[in-house]
Amino acid sequence: MQKFMIERKIPGIGRMKDSEIGAAAGASNKALAQLAPDVQWQHSYIAGDKSFCVYLATDEAAIRKHAEISGFPADVITRINKVIDPTTENQSEAVPA
Predict the structure, then answer these.
(1) Has domain 2-96 been given CATH number 3.30.70.3090?
(2) Which of 39, 53, 57, 69 is the most exposed place for a label (fewest CB within 10 A)?
């Protein structure tokens, strides 16, 4: 599995109620159930009118299929090659994604 960051432009998402966000998560989970085990949602960040979602997937096509089934845009899909954090300074190299 590869790790991806998906940028979704969703006007008003930053002002949505928790119940609305929960309903959106439910729609995503239904799509994921159809695509398992090829796509797994790890977590998302909401900032302004965008969400930034971290997924594991077999490939970019699986991410696009999830977007199609769920009805959520996948405006930018970026493969994550490495993950760094404050402890990276003490490692010989960054952790592969």
Answers:
(1) yes
(2) 69
Q: What is the pLDDT along the chain (97 residues), one digit of tens a residue?
A: 999 999 999 999 999 999 999 999 999 999 999 999 999 999 999 999 999 999 999 999 999 999 999 999 999 999 999 999 888 888 766 667 7
Distances (CA, A) of 12 to 47, 51, 75, 83: 10, 11, 16, 30
Residue 60, Cα to own-chain centre: how many angstroms? 12
Domain borders along the chain are 2-96
